[in-house]
Amino acid sequence: MSATSPHTDRILMGPGPGNPYPEVIEAFSRPVMGHLDPEFIVLLDETNDRLRQVFRTQNPLTFPVSATGSAGMEATIVNTVGPGDTIVIGINGVFGERMCDVASRCGADVVRVEAEWGMALDQQELLDAHPSPKVIAVVHAETSTGVRNDVTEIGAGKGDSLLLVDCVTSLGGIPLEIDEWGVDLAYSGTQKCLGVPPGISPVTVSAAAIKRFVDRSPSWYLDFSMIAAYVTGGAARAYHHTAPISMIYALHAGLGVVLNEGLENVHARHQACGDRLQAGLVDRGFELFAEEGHRLPELTAVRIPEERLPDGMSEADVRSVLLERYGIEIGGGLGPVAGKVWRIGCMGHTARQRNVTMLLGALDELMV
Amino acid sequence: MSATSPHTDRILMGPGPGNPYPEVIEAFSRPVMGHLDPEFIVLLDETNDRLRQVFRTQNPLTFPVSATGSAGMEATIVNTVGPGDTIVIGINGVFGERMCDVASRCGADVVRVEAEWGMALDQQELLDAHPSPKVIAVVHAETSTGVRNDVTEIGAGKGDSLLLVDCVTSLGGIPLEIDEWGVDLAYSGTQKCLGVPPGISPVTVSAAAIKRFVDRSPSWYLDFSMIAAYVTGGAARAYHHTAPISMIYALHAGLGVVLNEGLENVHARHQACGDRLQAGLVDRGFELFAEEGHRLPELTAVRIPEERLPDGMSEADVRSVLLERYGIEIGGGLGPVAGKVWRIGCMGHTARQRNVTMLLGALDELMV
User: Fold this and answer.
1) Taking the alpha carbons of B54, B56, B60, B66 in that order, is the dihedral positive or negative?
2) Which of B68, B250, B323 is the closest to A241 by Cβ?
3) Residue spans per domain, chain B
4) pLDDT per position in chain B (368 positions), as tens?
């Protein structure tokens, strides 16, 4: 407990991590096993089966990358685009921009398709941007703006291109259909709608994408061809690197919670929390940042009403008071909207109506 | 519990993970905080201070990479060698070979200096291999052979070259003096002698190495220049990627155990376990694989005496029986020594005399 805060725990209503499910924290107490232990392999296989259910895919190559969500992004890109390959990237927030950075380091030709922050990308524009890109990449749920970018038309019209989708903030929070939508590569994080602490990154890769892997990924650690020998190796697993055992226990448990509740029920819970939060904010005169019709329930960006900040307090001060007095974390803006928006998450175990009630109540107490 | 095993837990005496300290598992139950939470930043700073004490360095850029030990290897290499840079790499096992793979993917000119598996590298040979390499890289503790490669002469004679050392299996297990020995870059794992589950990779980087970073690392995720803005950013931390919060709690706790016991005492405990294990194996007619004078106490490779395997059982069968009947994991050999050596670890919380007693007793019961 710090000198300033009556809380040693947090209600995590920022852009992630959200609060983990209690069952997930319990899983951390399981005895650690070796990464080649037959019982661990059973648990890993089960984790990957659960991931397939949540991703809604049959892809055999579905597993958690042994690093956080941004490494999932890097992994999907470094295995598919090399020097001279064209990748079309949709950019309407920080994470589309990050994809460009990652892809350009691979020597890829990056074709940018932009939309204003807060607006959704135009799918046709992405399809028209280049006649035959190797990859078209889109962020499904832009954590920096609260915008949902749809990808179904891209999947339907992509032709020979591979469709790569950032599902960090969408997986487990809103409907996502990897196979039905024609998504070839997707990555996610554990610390958003899956209710697991950050640390590993679920990915799924289609057979078509595997056929078009670059010859030799610039990254050894993220080389999917090598990792596949461990992940999908059947009885004889080839050691690649030591798996993050405890984090996989945690993911296994988090996916168990989600599947026990039922994926549709979990989506509905996120939707209901987001709906009530967004209605409550609008009732209080806040303006939602994301375009109507494309608002994520699990991550809400609102414009900060300068005139309603308490006298002499900046928006950062208000966030500090929320953290110190209430133990509630909400997020500030990133990049061009820093200081202009707040980002409020209701993800995983945080997606409970009582948390919405608490935050709206706290804002009522704080704002003028 | 499986049908074949009376154990749901393991005594982890393979090449890692070892058993975690109980205090580490306890730390996993701490409430998750956000990666920009001021209280988390305090904990991260404290973790990095503890790492500096264990690495025996003053390097400000000392922190855990958000991925396992092999990513620590990749991180130190991709930030320092690019196309046309020369790196001299010592190879006497799997992990030196892995360094070559990683460095060649960066486009570096790799100069190989080899020693027979089981023998230590010749430091003068590494110094003489090239007139002015940018980096000289050595594995301090070869997990594939149980050999300790010394690096003090390289540190003293390196001139303008940077000395990069793999400390995955040495950190916390045997004496290591980053600053005194002139080591510029080092990485480790959590799951060996620090008594923490696998998942993140402590690294430390000298001021001289920072000055010679490549312009733009091929990896965004492992870009030290960008990560430094978060890790050593003072009050204003720039978000790079979401830190693996719970794994950092675990590392913080594991380092706390090590420093409370005292680094020298922890080394002595590893040494005493290794000494007794190795003497016990020799007494039983086993032949140690690593060259005398260069044997790691924390990781012992022994030649498998074929004639003493129980009738009709392979060495893998014996390891399976150890696992199923006793709940003890030991490791097989990698690469050219697969099927020829066992690798027995006494690392972290596993480094207790009672575990040596148990394993030697089990071998007495099993071997003919």
Assistant:
1) negative
2) B68
3) 11-19+262-366, 30-242
4) 344 567 789 999 999 999 999 999 999 999 999 999 999 999 999 999 999 999 999 999 999 999 999 999 999 999 999 999 999 999 999 999 999 999 999 999 999 999 999 999 999 999 999 999 999 999 999 999 999 999 999 999 999 999 999 999 999 999 999 999 999 999 999 999 999 999 999 999 999 999 999 999 999 999 999 999 999 877 678 889 999 999 999 999 999 999 999 999 999 999 999 999 999 999 999 999 999 999 999 999 999 999 999 999 999 999 999 999 999 999 999 999 999 999 999 999 999 999 999 999 999 999 99
Asked if A10 and B31 come within 8 Å (Cβ–Cβ), the reply is: yes
Q: What are the tokens at A285?
A: 């005169």
The correct CATH number of B30-242 out of 3.40.50.10810, 3.30.70.360, 3.40.640.10, 3.90.245.10 is 3.40.640.10
Cα–Cα distance for residue pair B169/B179, rounded to 1 Å: 19
The shortest CB-CB distance from B245 to any of A17, A31, A70 is to A17
CB of B83 within 8 Å of any CB in chain A? no
What is this model's ipTM?
Answer: 0.97
Architecture of the domain whose range is A23-261: 3-Layer(aba) Sandwich (3.40)
Q: For strands A341-345 and B162-166, give the pairing.
A: unpaired
Domain over B11-19+262-366 is classified CATH 2.40.160.20? no
Structural tokens at position A319: 């966030």
- Residues 44..73 of B with a Cβ closer than 8 Å to A: which? 66-71
B136 to chain A nearest CA, in Å?
20
Stated as kind and residue range, the H or E segment containing B164 is strand B162-166
Total CB pairs under 8 A between chain A and B: 183
Q: What percent of chain A clears pLDDT 70, i.e. is strictly above it?
A: 98
Residues A263-271, mean pLDDT to the nearest whole number = 98
CB contact under 8 A, A10 and B323: no
Q: What is the CATH number of domain A11-19+263-366?
A: 3.90.1150.10
Residues B20-71: tens digit of each pLDDT: 999 999 999 999 999 999 999 999 999 999 999 999 999 999 999 999 999 9
Q: How far apart are CA A15 and CA A33, in angstroms?
A: 32
Residues 6+ apart with CB under 8 A from A94: A142, A143, A144, A334, A335
Amino acid identity, residue A104? S
Decide if A213 touches B, using CB distance below 8 A: no
Q: What's the rounded Cα separation, in Å, for the pair B255 and B233?
A: 22
- Nearest beta carbon to residue B329 from set A34, A240, A246: A34
Contact check, Cβ <8 Å, B105/A10: no
What is the pTM for the complete model shown?
A: 0.97
Q: Which phi and psi angles does B164 have, rounded to 5°? A: -110, 125
- As to burial, measured by CB atoms within 10 angstroms (0-12 exposed, 13-18 middle, 19+ buried), residue A116 is exposed
In degrees and rounded to multiples of 5, residue B29 shows phi and psi of -85, -5
Alpha-carbon distances of A196 from A296, A326, A349, B226, rounded to whole Å: 20, 23, 9, 26
Between chains, do A69 and B241 touch, taking CB under 8 Å as contact? yes
Task: Give the closest-approach CA distance of B279 to chain A in angstroms.
Answer: 26
Strands (E), chain A: 11-12, 61-65, 86-91, 109-114, 135-139, 141-142, 147-148, 162-166, 185-187, 201-205, 287-288, 299-303, 328-329, 341-345
Q: CA of A32: how far to CAs of A245, B66, B307, in Å?
A: 7, 19, 33
Q: Chain B interface, mutation test: which of A9, A23, A28, most B Cβ atoms within 10 Å?
A: A28
d(CA B129, nearest CA chain A) in Å: 25
